[in-house]
């Protein structure tokens, strides 16, 4: 992916309506989408009754990240979140950074499953961090990777 293409991808991601509403900023996006860092600001809209980050904002941002990465890794397949869980370890008292890295050891497993079964359902672990680098929340996301046009009947 060229620098211009990467810049366009970043603009499209930042203007994705849910991200735009949450004022998400792309801090890092590798050309192959294997590494993604996003900033979720502690805005007035994102603040819960305790004055900390609303968990719904965290879930909304975490939801598509692994699926977007899988969509780039496995063209010709559709990818979507099948299951998402978040372990809120600390209150989100600052802006939060979401860090996602596609584990290299998982790719051959997914490729093998796609070749043998034409489907894969991997689970990814990533996290939110406070401004000082402290782990705030752990995310587990299971992604359904299926052939384009797949419809479960």
What is the element layout, followed by pairings?
Blueprint (H helix, E strand, L loop, with lengths): L2 H12 L2 H5 L3 E5 L5 E6 L14 H8 L2 H9 L3 E12 L7 E6 L4 H12 L5 E7 L5 E13 L6
Antiparallel strand pairs: 1-2, 2-4, 3-6, 4-5, 5-6
Return the average pLDDT rounded to an integer. Answer: 92
In the residues, how many domains can be counted? 1
The shape, in one word, is globular
Share of helical residues: 25-40%
The CATH class name reads Alpha Beta
Distance between the termini: 37 Å
Bin the strand percentage.
Answer: 25-35%
Q: What name goes with the CATH superfamily?
A: Hotdog Thioesterase
Q: Helix tally?
A: 5
C-alpha-based Rg, rounded: 16 Å
What is the strand tally?
Answer: 6
Which strand order does the major sheet show?
1-2-4-5-6-3
Structural classification: alpha+beta
Using the 3D structure, state the CATH architecture: Roll
What does this 3D model show about the protein?
The protein is of the alpha+beta class. It has one domain (3-147): Roll (Thiol Ester Dehydrase, Chain A). It is built from 5 helices and 6 strands; from the N terminus they run H-H-E-E-H-H-E-E-H-E-E. Strands 1-2-4-5-6-3 form a 6-stranded antiparallel β-sheet. A hairpin with a 5-residue loop joins strand 1 and strand 2 (35-40). The model has no long low-confidence stretch (mean pLDDT 92).
